[in-house]
Amino acid sequence: MHRIITVTGNKPSELTIMNEKDQRIEFIKKAIKQRLLKYIEDGLEWVIISGQMGVELWAAEVVMELKSQHDIRLGVFPPFREIESRWPDSYKEKFNEVIMHADFTQPLYDDTYKGPYQFSNKDNWLLEKTEASVILGDEEFPGSVQYFLDKAKKKQETDGYIIDWITPFDLEEIVLEEQTHNSFD
Asked: What pTM does this model have?
């Protein structure tokens, strides 16, 4: 049983998603929802994220949706204050909406960006506080999630930490399911 997990993954640009109207986001959210429902069945209580744009904010939206039917909570722990200050407006708005609806939120550093150590310490903190991570991405080409993944793999070796991938193949299966379902409608 995993009571506290984190969800992370690639940034929108790494997924070649250039705006929030991209249809692929719905498939990504559906994949996250399917995975979270399995964890909820096994006793999941908290999903905690750092609030990065892309996969983490989409996961937060999924958790906010699931809260209406399940006893699940969302914690948002940005590595520092004003993490969203240089983001595009659409992601700033999404971040602020997630913060408003989160069950708990607190920056890990009560200061603005000071250096890359804040991101590194954020990864360490998330791994210390969680029992598993759901990572949406390609294990062979992890992109920016590589830093988190390297630390998660070390924790996996020493403590049996769970790394649960949502792969490009998983996303393709969801697209095919949708297409098959829609062709029968």
From this structure: 0.94
